[in-house]
Amino acid sequence: MESSMLLDTEVPLQPLLQAAEASRGSNISTIRSLVMRAISDKEIFCGFDQIILIVGKSLSESIEGEKMLQTLHLFSNGTYDDYEKHRERYVNLTEAQVFKLRQLTAMSVVEDACCNRQSAVSYLSLRQNLQLADNTAVEDVLVSCINARVLAGELCQRSASLFLNENGPAVSPRDVTLTSVDAMIERLRTWKDVLAHSQVVSTQIQAAAASQLSVHNNWNSLLQSPLQHHAVERNTAERGWDLSDVRRYGDGSIGTKGDPMEISRPDGAGRRQKRGRGSLQGNAAETSEFGSFEW
């Protein structure tokens, strides 16, 4: 199971942000309803920090509101382990909300793997981070993330791993913390260097391919010419070669420098032939890559 089209998380978030703006100055009950909606929505996996900017001040004015504020922070960039260690700081979560927190935690694990240039994440690592009993429970979380289009990859039960998408982003981003900004900038610089190196390598490969194609086309043109084809056949027959050997060994790729004038014989010997200025009129001589011939 693999998907390369990740969810545009901004689309489902916008109505919620509009509702948060409308709730400014409202009572705690109204804001609580908004918070519960945010942490329960199956299409909202980021943007909790934006909600905090809008309603955070109002929430911080009461004990109940502070718990809701901490819960928003938990879903913004926290993990399931944070929840287990400090349950008293947060509102009581429903089973569905706990499952969503595990989804967010799985996204963080995959994001870390991507930053470390890993191609796969083991079920063992996910099981430990999500605090689940078996691989089946891990797969349930991963499948739900893939179906929600916040993860892109392929499950492999044989290796007990999630192989990450290689044709695009593997995970939708979560909210960014201020403490992680410097690390993100450094990662972007690293990727810039990687892309620059890849561009150099790509240019070199394209140049080499173009050179080989030119050599190949030159040989095709030579062998398709009736007179030259006859001359090649006669010359190779005199040397005990087969025309297929010429095509195979004389295409320039076996020569020491890829030189189309370098003739590599099947017996390993090779020599460079010079093309002379010949004429097809009268009894003039024609000199080709395979030697001089009388017409």
Describe this structure in words.
The chain contains eleven helices and seven strands. The chain is 56% helix and 8% strand. 23% of the residues are buried. Residues 251-266 and 272-295 have low confidence and may be disordered. The strands form three sheets. The chain has a three-stranded antiparallel β-sheet. Strands 4-5 form a two-stranded antiparallel sheet. The longest helix has 44 residues, at 181-224. With 295 residues, the protein is mostly helical. Helix 2 runs antiparallel to helix 3 (48-59) and helix 7 (123-130) crosses helix 8 (135-147). It has helices at 10-22, 28-40, 48-59, 63-77, 80-85, 95-115, 123-130, 135-147, 181-224, 226-238, 243-249, and strands at 120-122, 153-156, 161-164, 262-264, 270-272, 285-288, 291-294. It has two domains: 10-176, Serine Threonine Protein Phosphatase 5, Tetratricopeptide repeat (Alpha Horseshoe); 181-294, no CATH class.
Keywords:
295 residues, Serine Threonine Protein Phosphatase 5, Tetratricopeptide repeat, mainly alpha, 11 helices, 2 domains, single chain, three-stranded antiparallel β-sheet
